[in-house]
Amino acid sequence: GYDVHAQVVDVIRALPRDAHPMAILIASFAALAARYHGANALDPLRSAIVAISQVPGIVANIYRHTSGMPLTEADPNLGYVQNFVHMMFGDLHETRKSIICKALEAIFIMHADHEQNASTATVRATGSAGANLFACLSSGAATLWGPAHGGANEAVVKMLEEIGSPARVGEFIEKVKGKESGVRL
User: Which structural domain, as residue segments, surrounds residue 152?
Assistant: First the structure.
């Protein structure tokens, strides 16, 4: 199921709320690597199934933890993306949930088709050394945290927050054109 393993939830709760979400994600994958090793190791297919089922809950719980909200459980009646949105924003209006789900479905497909990016290469290199899938995902998450990879997405979010509203887009573009200190697209 989608419910996050108790040990992973304990790791998330043990880390400071002001910790960077990527640091918590790395630790969460490491907790899964610790859970599924040696005699408890899973075959590759089962590892992939566990990873795919755990990631939405892990990410949602990291978001809620760092936002100071209570952690949530999955709803077995919902699909993959719908469950992720439910675990992230449980009390959100249904219309907004529907819009977010449609956007995330497209985003997830685009990211799945992103080919050989830095984090994918890292996961593959770690896997080629014989590490279990969860250790590989931890190394990939560490790479994704870098400012030249996933950090670029974070920079876009910060830029959008700085712009604030559609009414301020023109003003922001003028600042960029004027080469004002520190203002970039």
Answer: 147-185
